[in-house]
Amino acid sequence: MAQSTGVALAVGTITAANEALFAPLAEHQKPFENFNWRIIPATLLFAGALAGLEKLSEPFAVGLGYIALFTVLLTRTGNAPAPIENIATVLGYNQNGKTGGTAK
What we know:
The chain has helices at residues 3-26, 39-56, 58-74, 83-91. It is mainly alpha-helical. It has one domain. It is elongated and about 50 Å long. The termini are far apart.
């Protein structure tokens, strides 16, 4: 298994967990109700692409994987807000219940 594969799978897992669990819990909906199933093949393609790129330049592929990891944690991707926003709402740091707002 290539070194970048684990990072790529972490990116896909975080994205899937955000779509399936974090966003619905933050918005008081049922989990897995509006799950975007295209995340699974996209994650596998991303892992394969990074593994192929790793044959050319291992540090570049691993670095690109970590950039994707930080991007997925901090930005809105897909149909849900960023995982950091949803976790803040679930933990009660976002009192108004809307993602993207400021806590009081």
